[in-house]
Amino acid sequence: MGVVNVTPDSFFDGGRYLDPDAAIAHGLELVAEGADLVDVGGESTRPGAAPVALGEELRRVLPVVEALAPHVRVSIDTTKRAVAEAAVERGATLVNDESCTLAAVASAAGVGLVVMHMQGTPRDMQRDPRYGDVVAEVHGTLARAAAAAREAGVEEVYVDPGIGFGKTTGHNLALLRALPELVAAGEPVLVGTSRKSFLGRVLAGEGRSPLPPEERLEGSLATAVLAASSGVAMLRVHDVRSTVQAVRLVGEPAGALR
Ligand code: PMM
């Protein structure tokens, strides 16, 4: 899943694809690089981000969804019902629902759904995230959300531990190491670590200032490989070409090669 953020303020690609033509061109580039699916979003969910008005979010995402849908499977990254509905009408076939509130939309439209774990809201989620047992709590929440989505009639459900959404670096690493358990629970798993700030912290090393997003590619690829070898079904990434290459090495069946 390649990322197209039609926003001025996303942490990595904010402002680059705010113009619909630039966003469409970028989406097509990701397809040429090997993306099976493109995730279009018009509201940044980075820590502290301000909410976007409905009309503005629709204006950002709909032309992009409509232009990309004939070429690639499109998912709509939103927390708003009206945005999800309008995007599905324009050809999106997966609702990437960070709020866990859009199962009814996906069910009514007969499209897929991603349920993602978040503690708090983007405005406050990184202030002081706390868990008793992060893995048990996140996996439990996802199991309940997936069951509720199936109950509502959604046939294709992905669960996503929500890396960076109300989690410390330690929480994120614990969730990444526990991916095999989440995969074993039975629902297909989606993971997004691409360029996220915990990578900048780990890569910089103890006591140093975190590396900026531009210097986190190695961390993105290492975690993509970890996730792929844990059996994850889908990776949400900015760097499609390098991720496809890195993951190809994990998935290549050894027996047939000389
Ligand atoms: N991360 C971001 C946005 N949307 N959706 C899902 N399902 N999982 C994620 O991890 C996720 C997401 C934040 O990254 P961005 O600002 O680069 O889009």
CATH topology: TIM Barrel
H and E string: EHEHEHEHEHEHHEHHEH
CATH architecture: Alpha-Beta Barrel
Approximate shape: globular
Bound molecules: pterin-6-yl-methyl-monophosphate
Q: How many domain regions?
A: 1
Low-confidence stretches: none
CATH top level label: Alpha Beta
Notes on the structure:
The chain is α/β, with parallel strands linked by helices. It has a single domain (2-247), classed as Alpha-Beta Barrel (TIM Barrel), CATH 3.20.20.20. It is 43% helix and 12% strand. It has a 6-stranded parallel beta sheet with strand order 1-2-3-4-5-6. Strands 7-8 form a two-stranded parallel sheet. α4 (103-109) links the parallel β4 (94-97) and β5 (112-116). α9 (217-229) packs parallel to α10. It is globular, with a radius of gyration of 17 Å. The mean pLDDT is 95. The structure holds pterin-6-yl-methyl-monophosphate (PMM). Pterin-6-yl-methyl-monophosphate is lined by residues 3, 5, 10-12, 41, 44-46, 77, 96, 98, 114, 116, 160, 162-163, 190, 192, 236. Pterin-6-yl-methyl-monophosphate binds at residues 3, 5, 10-12, 41, 44-46, 77, 96, 98, 114, 116, 160, 162-163, 190, 192, 236.
